[in-house]
Design brief:
Layout: H1 3-31, E1 46-50, E2 58-63, E3 66-71, E4 74-77, H2 80-91, E5 97-100, E6 117-123, E7 126-139, E8 150-157, E9 163-167, H3 171-174, E10 185-188, E11 194-200, E12 206-211, E13 214-217, E14 220-221, H4 224-234, E15 236-238, E16 256-262, E17 268-274, E18 283-287, E19 295-296, H5 302-306
Antiparallel strand pairs: 1-2, 1-6, 2-3, 3-4, 5-9, 6-7, 7-8, 8-9, 10-15, 11-12, 11-16, 12-13, 13-14, 16-17, 17-18, 18-19
């Protein structure tokens, strides 16, 4: 073959290679998603978490502006901030790579019902997201200059065969018990917004009021450092020692009460009840911030943290 013939063959082969590359590129673009889910999180009204076999199914339901978490016939107040973070985490999922493209690999990556966790997000009856969260892997830092290793989770959309690798440890968020999703707060505000506290005790009630940036107790100047320390300790008060299946209304009048008032929030009324019928849960605490939830006041020293005497604040 002469030079002209070789050149023609070379051009034809080059054209074929270019066409194949373009085809493969477009094919890859079609199969490799840039995002896994896309919805307006404010429209979500329900999240159903179907965990690995043997664990309890959990459902979060939005009612008005509040969320409830339920499982096995029991329903509790849910942590709205946690729910918002869960939805945000789904929306941030970005595929790093394709891990598998065939159904026979689903079990290996734990993206099927028996070994994976399925998460469904709905707006009433409309499905917004339906995704399986599977296997987790961790890679150590490659060198001493890399502070953290790489955390990878494997996921699959319910209507898709492809398994994707994404950043993060998703099982930590979506594979928990019901108490993890509950509202754990008795008080949640900013300490600088608090300007009045009313301690209502059987024989030693007192009121602490902020006037001209100074705290006063029944006309006496309170110790500013002690007050600041107390406000810092109670402004965000949470507890996980729930006491369920008990009606505090059957216990009679509360023993102590603490009313917290201020700017930018509805006043909180925290009450302490004596439960003489139970030696373990003998001190029960409720809060209007978290209506319907009862806490064990003895554990974590919750009683002594909230209900203090006048002498604590006076010099």
């Amino acid at each position: 073959m002469n030079f002209k013939s070789l050149a023609i063959v070379f051009v034809l082969l080059l054209a074929i290679v270019i066409v194949l590359k373009i085809y493969e590129s477009k094919k890859g673009d079609r199969s490799f998603r840039k995002e896994l889910v896309n919805f307006d999180k404010t429209q979500a009204t329900a999240i159903t978490i179907i965990p690995k076999a043997g664990k309890e199914q959990i459902k979060l339901t939005k009612k008005a502006d509040n969320w409830k978490v339920s499982s096995k016939g029991k329903s509790f107040n849910a942590d709205k901030t946690m729910v918002d973070n869960m939805l945000e985490e789904l929306l941030k999922l970005k595929p790093k790579r394709v891990a598998a493209t065939t159904k026979d690999k689903w079990k290996e990556f734990e993206v099927i019902d028996s070994v994976g966790t399925r998460v469904l997000v709905n707006q009433d009856k409309k499905a917004l997201a339906d995704i399986y969260i599977g296997k987790f892997s961790y890679k150590q830092p490659k060198n001493q200059y890399q502070r953290q290793g790489t955390m990878i989770s494997y996921v699959r959309l319910n209507n898709d065969k492809i398994v994707y690798a994404v950043d993060g440890f998703l099982s930590m968020t979506y594979n928990r018990d019901i108490n993890s999703y509950r509202n754990k707060y008795l008080v949640k505000t900013k300490k600088q917004d608090i300007n009045k506290l009313s301690f209502i005790y059987p024989d030693s009630s007192f009121t602490m009021l902020k006037q001209n940036n100074k705290w006063m107790i029944d006309g006496l100047l309170a110790d500013s450092a002690t007050v600041a320390k107390y406000l810092s300790s109670i402004a965000v008060t949470s507890n996980q020692n729930f006491v369920d299946d008990i009606d505090v209304n059957t216990l009679g009048k509360e023993q102590y009460s603490l009313i917290i008032e201020g700017d930018n929030f509805v006043p909180f009324n925290i009450k302490l009840y004596n439960n003489l019928l139970d030696s373990v849960n003998n001190k029960l605490i409720t809060s209007t911030y978290n209506n319907g939830t009862v806490f064990n006041g003895t554990k974590s020293d919750l009683v002594n943290k909230l209900f203090v005497g006048k002498s604590k604040f006076l010099k």
